[in-house]
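Usage

Read records sequentially. Each one opens with the input sequence:
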Amino acid sequence: QVTLVESGGGLVQAGGSLRLSCATSGGGFRFTTMAWYRQAPGKQRELVARILSSASTFYTDSVKGRFTISRDTTKNTVYLQMSSLKPEDTAVYYCHGYYFRDYWGQGTQVTVSS
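and closes with the structure output:
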């Protein structure tokens, strides 16, 4: 059984930084794609950043220049460095991995106060 576990969320003031981590256990394979999604109250889950096994990255426009996604392919671990946080970044952040199907973590809350 494959399990993704996020950590690093919390409460931070606007302008601050947080680093999210997502560790994987089980599976015996490497995800072809890993990503971070977020879901704010009353809104749909949205893609924040994605990184391929080639290290190619994608960011949604609202986080470009502020967030950085990285991964350790040997450990199937993905990170999200978040800087210059804004109140609108407040959401539950979910780790995602893809290998012939979608795998999700349970989410970690990020709250940015103004």
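Summary fields computed downstream for this record:
- The two ends are 40 Å apart (CA to CA).
- The first strand starts at residue 3 and ends at 7.
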